[in-house]
């Protein structure tokens, strides 16, 4: 289910929870603030660790190999892939539409 959460405005005390019943999704701009745990691209390629190209910090979310949008790219969250034939690719991140609850 997608719904607006009371802490979504600042995100500082938000914690991502995942279980068999639900995932939390957030839609904000081009996904610059996305901090979910998707680590595969639209075509199913595995993402590689960010530290090979970017410097991780507690605020940029680049510690592991999750899809992110650190450069504000219009394609939304993306990652460098582990496939030498494809350097990077966008990720298939589900988004909530404003004011819509989806089950």
TrEMBL record:
Q: Name one Pfam family in it.
A: Kringle
Q: Which UniProt keywords apply?
A: Disulfide bond, Kringle
Q: What does UniProt give as the signal peptide span?
A: none
Q: CDD domains under this entry? A: KR
Q: Which domain of life is it from?
A: Eukaryota
Q: Which residues form the Kringle domain?
A: 29-96
Q: Which InterPro entries match?
A: Kringle, Kringle-like, Kringle_CS, Kringle_sf, Serine_protease_kringle
Under PANTHER family, the record lists:
KRINGLE DOMAIN-CONTAINING PROTEIN, PLASMINOGEN-RELATED
Q: What is this protein called?
A: Kringle domain-containing protein
